[in-house]
TrEMBL record:
This is DNA-binding transcriptional MerR regulator. It comes from the Bacteria. The keyword Transcription regulation does not apply. Keywords: DNA-binding. SUPFAM superfamilies: Putative DNA-binding domain. Residues 2-71 form the HTH merR-type domain. GO terms for molecular function: DNA binding; DNA-binding transcription factor activity. InterPro entries: DNA-bd_dom_put_sf (IPR009061), MerR-type_HTH_dom (IPR000551), MerR_fam (IPR047057). CDD domains: HTH_MerR-like. The keyword Transferase does not apply.
Amino acid sequence: MAWSTREIADLAGTSLRAVRHYHEVGLLEEPERRANGYKQYGVSHLVRVLRIKRLTDLGFSLSQIAAMGDADDHPEEALRTLDAELGATIERLQRIRVELGLILKQSVPTDLPPEFAPAAADTHLTDADRSLVVVMTRVLGPEGMKTYADMLQNVPHDPVSAEFDSLPTDADEETRQRVAEQMAPYTRDLQEKYPGLLTVNADAPGGEHFARQTVGKAMRDLYNEAQIDVMIRMQSLLAEPRPTDPA
């Protein structure tokens, strides 16, 4: 009994193109040809195509099937390896589903990790602020991330933030100094409430210098010249003792 390429494809429940591809990658031996030049497939070819199709349906790649050889025995080691890979994939997909559920439930941006989702949902972050948070999540270590996420989630309203956010790049000297002086007490209170903010880069995977350098570059890209100047002035003010503190 001999079948044509199309007939063996139909019998195996696959496509003509798939059978031809199996030949091209060396998974299926070329059959003999009739006098008219047409291929004639036998039972061994059908069994081989069915095995290839079964293994691909289970999740094996063609390269993995090729590594198994032509033997039709029980490839226990390959099956166990695939089972472990599928288990890891299922765990990853389950984590993704949890994150998707959180994103859908809280309508949070997709560019923030799950621990920052409540903060993004509960605070009114500007586009610049959110982009900065995204950058920080890429350079901070576990402790730094936790401190920063906790702070964002519980951050009190800053009455000066709106003015800072809308500060034009040509803001005059007096305005810059006033905004810095108004922001300093609020920022100092945050640092006292979350002392980890002062060492937020301590466990950065790439090192403290890399984290500071990366965040600094992001801030220069995200905020205008006047806003950067206000932040520098504010840091200078924070380095000074409180007005009520002894000198």
